[in-house]
Design a protein that fits this description.
Layout (H helix, E strand, L loop, with lengths): L1 H8 L4 H26 L1 H9 L3 H5 L10 H50 L3 H5 L3 H41 L1 H49 L1 H7 L2 H51 L3 H34 L1 H14 L16 E9 L8 E9 L3 E5 L6 H8 L7 E6 L2 E2 L2 H8 L2 E5 L7 E2 H5 L10 H10 L4 H4 L8 E2 L8 H14 L4 E5 L7 H15 L4 E6 L10 E4 L4
Parallel strand pairs: 3-10, 3-11, 6-9, 9-10
Antiparallel strand pairs: 1-2, 1-4, 4-5, 7-8
């Protein structure tokens, strides 16, 4: 567990480590207050049981002429004040700790999220969405693990303190209770460790499968309804959900089990101490004071023992999460800040020479691409469905890197910096473009801060795209709400909004990747006529389609099936 703690501690930044050390000091102060408040119980018990003890109190000038009841009242008030101060300090520490953990959660999640959005397009071709979503959700559990460490450490210190007090009051009883507590924690943890670790790994795997169930179901809901496959997807969901529920039941059972064993051990412990104390002493009053004090401490120690085993169980259950988050942070630790540099690229020509590409080494999608695109040309890419048109677009845009061959931009090699500059000139309109569940203006001014949106420019782009009527005919205007992925729009409206988005960006290169294939012939013709009228010869246009009639105004046409 120490190794696990150090692995987490090494991942937090310098400021977080400073706060972590402050919490450690707070914990030590809280421990002192906790133990001091427990020690105060002894004189109160002695005053109540031992009739002569109040005379010893009277030796102090402050208690001179005080009755026994007055001394008891003073001690009780002092005890209440001590507990009040202790709990007030504890409340402050809890808030500070929760705020600290929230800061770590924000930092860790942001670091992982930033790393994901900084990855190349090919990275996402090799990853499942369910895996990425699950990994991002892990950070919340990771923060709970850090809190488990805090709690286990505090309770361990309290338990050690209580056992020390018992030891100084009665050494034999202290040794007996200490050995029993240590033995219980070690045996319980050893028994549960393997089981809980296995349940944690299984829970994480099933969580990913459930997320995958959600994605598959709601992404295919149209086909599910048409083909009446609801039962199939429901059964798959129920199967994974049942496995996860059963795993959680087993984990909860084994986590609760120690508490039940503790109750039996407490009775055994107290009974043994009662017999031992009364058998070795003839002074019933002193024995009764010691027994009452030790019993009070034992009952205070019970929650500590229970919490230690629970926290250790929780840590064991989440070892898989700790390892995965540590791995994610380590893998992404070298990611640089996302920088938006001023683009000075003056695009003149893009040339692909003898380019070969395959998603794996066993087969190639293209074996010999030779393609030339000049500024303000309109390029057509033709090919049947599945022939690789979208793959070629991804190569042209720098989203995918070729296995062999050369790509040159303005006669310069296509390196990373040049690709970033090139991509900033491009807007791609396809069937896959996603519309935000947000306002019309936010969909056009995609990814732009609200205060920085140019409303006049948004309106101009909507007019050029022949979709301004959505704003003019609705009382919300530019705040007209577009539902998730444009569910409240027609196909043609969706594509025109995507086109307006491209125009708002002032892209020099417009790419239409089967952008109109899902539209009816009339709407498709209208959109392509608008493109020809407004942008032919003024912008570089690349049209990828399987329909020859859409390419009648292209300057060059490439057939991907010949590559």
């Amino acid at each position: 567990m120490i190794k696990l703690f150090l692995s987490i501690y090494s991942k937090i930044n310098k400021n977080e480590k400073r706060k972590f050390n402050i919490i450690f000091l707070f914990t030590l102060l809280l421990l002192i207050l906790e133990l001091f408040s427990l020690v105060l119980i002894l004189p109160i018990i002695t005053l109540i049981i031992n009739d002569n003890f109040y005379l010893q109190f009277a030796q102090f000038s402050i208690f001179d002429d005080w009755t026994k009841n007055q001394q008891i009242l003073f001690c009780l008030v002092f005890l209440i004040i001590t507990f009040f101060i202790k709990n007030l300090f504890y409340a402050f520490m809890v808030f500070f700790k929760k705020k600290f953990l929230a800061d770590i959660q924000i930092d860790f999640t942001s670091r992982i999220y930033k790393s994901y959005v900084s990855q190349s397009y090919s990275f996402y071709l090799k990853r499942d969405k369910s895996n990425i979503i699950r990994n991002l959700s892990f950070v919340g559990e990771y923060i709970n693990v850090i809190e488990n460490f805090f709690n286990a450490f505090l309770e361990l210190l309290i338990l050690v303190g209580i056992l020390s007090i018992i030891f100084f009051r009665d050494a034999v009883a202290g040794i007996f209770i200490s050995l029993l507590s240590i033995l219980f924690i070690i045996v319980t943890f050893s028994f549960l460790k393997t089981k809980l670790k296995k349940y944690g790994e299984l829970t994480n795997l099933l969580t990913e499968k459930l997320i995958n169930n959600y994605i598959n179901t709601f992404s295919s809901i149209r086909d599910i309804i048409l083909q009446k496959k609801q039962n199939f997807f429901l059964n798959e969901f129920r199967k994974n959900l049942s496995k996860q529920a059963i795993t959680n039941v087993k984990n909860s059972f084994f986590t609760e089990l120690p508490r039940l064993v503790i109750e039996v051990l407490v009775i055994l412990c107290i009974s043994t101490i009662v017999y031992f104390l009364f058998s070795k002493s003839n002074n019933t009053t002193d024995t009764l004071v010691t027994l009452t004090f030790i019993t009070a401490l034992i009952f205070r120690a019970i929650p500590s023992v229970s919490r230690i085993t629970n926290q250790l169980s929780g840590l064991t259950f989440k070892i898989d999460i700790i390892n995965k988050v540590n791995e994610l942070i380590s893998n992404f630790s070298d990611e640089k800040n996302i920088e938006i540099k001023k683009n000075n690229l003056n695009f003149e020509e893009l040339e692909l020479t003898a380019v070969k590409f395959g998603y794996d080494d066993s087969s190639f999608v293209f074996k010999n691409i030779n393609l030339n695109i000049k500024k303000n040309e309109t390029i057509g890419i033709i090919g049947s469905s599945g022939s690789g048109k979208s793959t070629l677009i991804d190569i042209v845009t720098g989203m995918l890197q070729p296995n062999f061959g050369k790509i040159a931009l303005n006669h310069k090699n296509f390196d990373k910096n040049l690709i970033h500059e090139w991509q900033s000139k491009i807007s791609c309109i396809s069937q896959k473009n996603y519309l935000l569940n947000s306002s019309l203006k936010n969909n056009v001014a995609f990814g732009e801060i609200e205060d920085e949106i140019n409303y006049s420019k948004v309106e101009e782009c909507l007019k050029l795209s022949q979709i301004y009527y959505l704003a003019s005919e609705n009382k919300e205007g530019l705040n007209f709400l577009i539902e998730e992925d444009g569910k409240n729009l027609s196909g043609g409206q969706r594509q025109r909004i995507i086109l307006a988005r491209a125009l708002y960006r002032e892209s020099e290169v417009l790419i239409f990747d089967e952008a109109t294939s899902a539209l009816d012939e009339k709407t498709e013709k209208e959109i392509m006529n608008d493109v020809k009228k407004n942008f032919h010869g003024k912008k570089t246009i690349i049209i990828s389609t399987h329909k020859h009639n859409l390419l009648n105004f292209c300057d060059k046409i490439y057939n991907v099936e010949k590559f």
